[in-house]
Amino acid sequence: MPLALRDLQAAFAAHIMSNDRADLIAAVVGDSIPAASRLNVYRHHVFHSLAGALAATFPTVQALVGEEFFRKLTHAFVADALPSQPVLAEYGANFPAFVEGHTVARDLPYLADIARLDWTLNVAFHSPAEGHLDAADLATIPAEQLPSKTVALAAGAGLIRSLYPIDRIWTVSQPGAPTETVDLAARAARLLVLRRPDDASFIVLSEGEAAFVTALDAGRSLERAAEAGFAADAAFDLSTVLARLLALRAFAALQ
Amino acid sequence: MKQVAGIGLRSPHLVEIGRDRPATAFLEIHAENYLAGSPALATVERLRADYTFSVHAVGLSLGSAEGLDEAHLGRVAALVKRLQPAYVSDHLSWSVAGGRYFNDLLPLPYTEEALGVVVRNVGRLQEALGRQVAIENPSCYLGFAHSTLSEPEFLSELVRRSGCGLLLDANNIFVTAHNLRLDPRAWLDGLSGAAITEYHLAGYAVNDADGEPILIDDHGSRVGDAVWALFGDIVRRFGPRPTLMEWDTDIPALSVLLDEAQRADCAIAAAGSHAARAA
Question: Residue B111 contacts by C-beta under 8 Å, 6 or more apart in sequence?
């Protein structure tokens, strides 16, 4: 009795992801190329193509660990978590957490944060191009209402904090970048990732700016967010910070 | 010479095509690369004014016994509605089982049961899109012992029951025929040309499987000589159709891709001068 299609597909899936399935091998025509070798063509392609998709989303992780180790790392990740849908730009949200839990994180403690940065840049790149808030929009709001106003981050914007200088690590890992030494103990990093018209990029924030953006992102008013910024950094200056972030199109248009 | 060959629009060429607007019969995009939104989608929307488009899906998994992923179908339908392409297609294969996506065109047994599944899924796709779609013959690396239909029989019956079109990939016929020990010309005998709406051409690689060559549909080189010969036979048999030149790995300079597409135009012109009239 041949396998019903649903059972055959379940067996095929299990065969590709883990151990050989005798019932599946028996269902495949073998000749001078045995059935198991023919099935291996598919097994190889599934892992190879998904590793390629992860390399496109996490290029800096690959640059840091090298192609060969990246292939091993992604093989373990793919075996653990196939995509749940076919849009590969949306595959890999859990890869940074996977890296964090992997033994490689013992030698490269910043690698998971680099994976988060690659992922957040990918999310920003694939976010919709929507309107942004500019200074002229703010000027239309009566001054007495401004402190209680909330503003949302622009589509695709994301804040990343790391104990390591991941902005420097990221920069020296880009193709063609000159070889430089990064002092890991130098400083922590607070980065704001933003979608730009043709790509995605990040800026380095001060501690006060990071506290301000975090509070705004949590839905706090401008006044409360400014208090958070000042609490984190006594030199925090609201008008300077706002001007910088507005110029970078960091906020979504007012609803 | 009439231009009937189009090219795949791939990210390394986006800027150059946007700037230079080279002549080509149409541009093809993979649906799944444009569902997440990106600056690339904005480029495609600008190019729509100057080019005919083909939306080729790779992830609908029309052969899945569990049915289509309605969320993904909805996103593809929204893209098709937005871009209004001239051609829409996907493959005779499956890539989803148990809600997990394998990112490969996995093979189907050619049985009445599988035919029923594909007819139902293609029907659902055409209903969601409100239009006919073309289904492409896949490259196969194995066959199932319990298949009761040949691939052309399966495709012909799919066309008859679902009303879909056929996308005939000459390279896939050649690759499958080599790997499964079939005669590609006999494969063509089993097919009626009336439903064919589009052709595909691509290069293949030769890999080693236990000391024997197995052909891999990697879209990573120029079209093979034997595939050009087979393509000539196809055009003489079924007449010219819009033809896509595919190149997806080791993507060359745009000029190389356009040159290969021009070779397809020449092949179609040469074959068309003594072609059977399209059915």
Answer: A2, A5, B144, B146, B147, B148, B149
pLDDT at B1: 74
Residue pLDDT, tens place only, A39-90: 999 999 999 999 999 999 999 999 999 999 999 999 999 999 999 999 999 9
Say if CB B131 and CB A113 are below 8 A apart: no
Q: Which of residues 76-105 of A touch B (CB under 8 A)?
A: 82-90
Locate the domains of chain A by residue range. 1-108, 128-255
Q: What is the DSSP letter of A249?
A: T
Question: B192 in a domain, yes or no?
Answer: yes
Range of the domain at B62: 5-272
Nearest to B39 among A4, A86, A199 (CB): A199
Which residues of A, range 194-213, sit inside 8 Å of B by Cβ? 197-199
Tell whether B278 is covered by a domain: no
* Domain total in chain B: 1
- In this prediction the ipTM stands at 0.95
CA distance linking residue B185 with residue B234, whole number of Å: 9
The residue with tokens 């829409």 is B88
CA distance A144 to A133: 19
| pLDDT (tens digit per residue) in B189-242 | 989 899 999 999 999 999 999 899 999 999 999 999 999 999 999 999 999 999
Alpha helices in B21-90 (DSSP H): 39-47, 70-83
B279 assigned to some structural domain = no
B277 assigned to some structural domain = no
pTM above threshold 0.90: yes
Show the tokens assigned to B272.
């068309």
User: Looking at the complex, does the CB of residue B37 fall below 8 Å from at least one CB of chain A?
Assistant: yes
**Average pLDDT score over residue span A11-24:** 96
Q: If phi over 0 gives left and psi between -120 and 50 gives alpha, with beta otherwise, what is residue B14?
A: alpha
- Which CATH number covers residue B15? 3.20.20.150
